[in-house]
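If I may wish for something, please sit down with the protein I am sending here and say whether tokens and residues agree:
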Amino acid sequence: MVILPYIIFAISLAVLLKASDWFIDSSEQIGLSLGISPFIIGLTIVAFGTSLPELATSIAAVLRGESTIVMGAVVGSNITNIALVLGLVAIVAKTIKLEYNIWHIDMPYLWGSAFILWFITRDLQISIFEAIICLAGIVTFMAYSMKSSDGPLESRPKVNWRHYAMLLIGGILVWVSSDFAIQSIEEISLVAGIKPSIISVSAVALGTSLPEVIVSLNAARKGKPSLAVGNVLGSNIFNTYVVVGIPSLVGKVEVSGEILDTFLPIMIVMTILFGIMSNNKTITRWEGIVLLMFYMLYASQLFSGANI
């Protein structure tokens, strides 16, 4: 049945997103109970949680011999987070005022991760040594972020066994659904005649970025758009270091020439633009519109290179 792979992809992606939501909610509550501040939770725990779909699909792709999907998911998700997610948040919030100076270390770290990704992919593969470098990068980032993470004792919520159970169940469902998603991508690429790398940089990237969209827009509607910026920034750092590093230890990760020559440069440009826009600690609605315009240009590149 020709339509079956599309149905499996839609269902597995829906389960993946719901399971990720359970994982994020429970990990956030556990983090608050340990006295971790809300901003640091957005930058680390929630950012890691919203990057979990990318990590799960990337590991599943390597295990199934479709490792080119890994870089497509990372690059596509990073572009989507900045151009689409941040653009929508800026439009909804009208103006994003950053209470935290992300240029102190977070933005330079994000820029550094983007250039490191470009450097290590020049030979169209990720070596084990390069994977270790990536994981060392995320350890350093986490160590810095957690330095001032203690929150006031009276603000700490209580957690019970249900939070830990949802954390476990959410994690298991993420792994299972991601495997089905990769299987369906393989079928779709054969049936529709579309390159797996293009599917990963478009459908997979957009689908796995939905947690960032939901979390960030909710933060903007609640009057906390700066938390959305922290989530986008943290998610992109996690994508580059963790989603590239861990699968590269599981198996050989190859990079398609199309990702290296076309989409990775777009990601680097969007990362630089993110930094320029946030330099004055304010991102306006007009800047959000500019980001969405860049996303439309990026989407046009996807359509132009869709066929095998």
In short: The domain at 4-148+158-304 is CATH 1.20.1420.30 (A middle domain of Talin 1). Residues 26 and 164 are 7 Å apart (CA to CA). The chain is about 75% helix and 5% strand.
